[in-house]
Amino acid sequence: MNFSEPCRLSGLLGRISPDGRCLASCVQYRLIVRDVSTLQILQLYTCLDQIQYVEWSSDSLFILCAMYKRGIVQVWSLEQPDWHCKIDEGSAGLVASCWSPDGRHILNTTEFHLRITVWSLCTKSVSYIKYPKACQQGIAFTKDGRYMAVAERRDCKDFISLFVCSDWQLLRHFDTETQDLFGIEWAPNGCVLAVWDTCLEYKILLYSLDGRLLSTYRAYEWSLGIKSIAWSPSSQFLAIGSYDEKVRILNHVTWKKIAEFEHPATVANTKTVVYKEVEKPSAVEMERLSFPPTRALASSLFSTQNDISQVPVSFQYIKPVADRANPKMGIGMLAFSPDNCFLATKNDNIPNAVWIWDIQKLKLSVVLEQLCAIQSFQWDPRQPRLAVCTGNSKVYLWSPAGCVSVQVPMEGDFQIVSLCWHPSGDSMALLSKENFCMCYLEREEVK
User: Fold this and answer.
1) CA 49, 55, 57, 59 torsion: positive or negative?
2) How far, CA to CA in Å, does 378 sit from each of 124, 354, 387, 425?
3) DSSP class of 110
4) Are 315 and 369 in contact (CB under 8 A)?
5) pLDDT tens digits for 219-265?
């Protein structure tokens, strides 16, 4: 495993292109495009203000930079560096921007969610979608890029509009049986749209492409409901994480629950492997010691390794503060492995642990207990290998073969708070608040 030199970064805005050749990073108002393998600068663009959002087009030929404070989007071309595009929403303002799947249209959501404006880069035409709902996840595209679903709010009721992305014609428009729709997400096969309600009510609805309600699932009433959902890559399973610290798995045939995964503070099953991160003192030259020690030196005094713990194992459990909004409780993160075999989850009540479930056996397989709270995790897109970061200078990798922690060899303080895999699975970008570096895995490690 090799690491690049650190490069500057602002706002965690580092993105690998879909074709895997380039990496775009933002530093204040500058957009820097580098070669992924060498980090050599290929292009340098200057925007009108500080960049708050960046996104590659699906064909990796264009980059969108959004400056929400100014209500402006700028688009840059990799093939023609002199070409550029500026979209100014003016007094309507801007709160969100994204590419359409064809990489030639941009969807801008105006302030107060008054409308979505669809701008064409080819014809310079403009289309408008009225009444978009202000919710966490209000726009969803099918994986094949043919259809778009938009959550809408009209006359105090929730609706879904389905559009054909090729010409932006309305395909279907129907109301949903939700009190206050919170999010929508297509199954990877594009046949089913999941719609879930506000956290005040546990309710998830499943609609077909023609707007028929296929099923409604409610696990309980009169308590905080759904917090996160994830489709399996095969579209066979829908995992629903809720505030009661459980994950429920629905099957795609009957849309009934086939499994319920609990996240207790103590794991007692002898068939569950628990990897516990432990600190081990390391040898340091006496001349380097100073008091008080610098943060970098303090971290080098102790190395960590992941040992297998004997069950039963008890984890650090945090009770949420009852009188504050958005309590840190329940299943906040969910992700299926690319082969559908594993599901990784995080229970916010036990912030230092990642739970890995065997989907074939529908049981808990592994728990990774770290010294610090889990910031992010992501599956290798090519194989069942999970990368985890906890806000320190280490990256943790788990696969069915075992678990390792790797120290990033870097001077100063490099706290990894986010990461993203290269599409090939042979490298990943490690992001801190002010820097990023590339982690290149050896070919033997990739296999």
Assistant:
1) positive
2) 37, 11, 5, 11
3) P
4) yes
5) 999 999 999 999 999 999 999 999 999 999 999 999 999 999 999 99
For 441, residues 6+ apart whose C-beta sits below 8 A from its C-beta are 1, 426, 427, 428
Task: In whole angstroms, give the CA distance from residue 410 to residue 125.
Answer: 49
Percent of the chain at pLDDT > 90 equals 87
Banded pLDDT at 270 (limits 50, 70, 90): very high
DSSP letter, residue 92: G
Q: Which two tokens stand for residue 290?
A: 């100073």
pLDDT for residue 25 is more than 80: yes
**pTM of the entire predicted model:** 0.93
Tokens of 42: 């290929």
Cross-strand bridge partners of residue 195: 184, 205
pLDDT higher at 298 or 321: 321
CB atoms within 10 A of CB 227: 21
User: Which residues is 185 bridged to in the sheet?
Assistant: 194
Say whether 358 sits in a helix, a strand or coil. strand
Tokens of 2: 């090799």
301 pLDDT band, cuts 50/70/90, is very low
**H or E element: which one contains 117?**
strand 115-120
> DSSP string covering 128-180, please?
EEE-B--STB-EEE-TTSSEEEEEEEETTEEEEEEEETTTTEEEEEEE-S-SS
Q: Say which amino acid occupies 333.
A: M
CA distance 262 to 244: 9
Residue with tokens 């297509």: 186
- Count Cβ neighbours within 10 Å for each residue of 166-200 and write b for 16 or more, e otherwise: eebeeebeeebebeebbbbbbbbebebbbbbbbbe
Strand order in the sheet with 169-175: 139-141, 147-154, 157-164, 169-175
DSSP three-state, residue 236: coil
Query: Over the stretch 182-224, which tens digit does the pLDDT of each residue have?
Result: 999 999 999 999 999 999 999 999 999 999 999 999 999 999 9
Which residue reads 């801008």 in tokens?
Answer: 108
